[in-house]
């Protein structure tokens, strides 16, 4: 089992949850695979959210020309609900960091903490695109 399957980065995601009202954090790849999750969310739920958030990022990225230019790179998506927020930020090539939070969260503190974590982890958060195995390799 590789390190990503054993959630070896999970403890680092818990750092973001020190912001009051922050609930859960997950690290996902661009293709929706779960890389790591914080302590308070079950793996099955984290995997489901990773798949959904990958789609959300893709949709967000496709609306770039609505904001400026089609080539304007995506950086962050924020979704607001009655009971809270979901923050989604770029975390290196092919990786995203997502945090859920309650309605009374300090939004600036969450995004600052997320970007600080992304900077600190650097290469650990970069997920290269998946490669199909060579023909004949199972």
UniProtKB/TrEMBL annotation:
SMART domains linked: Robl_LC7
Domain Roadblock/LAMTOR2: 10-101
The protein, known as: Roadblock/LC7 domain-containing protein
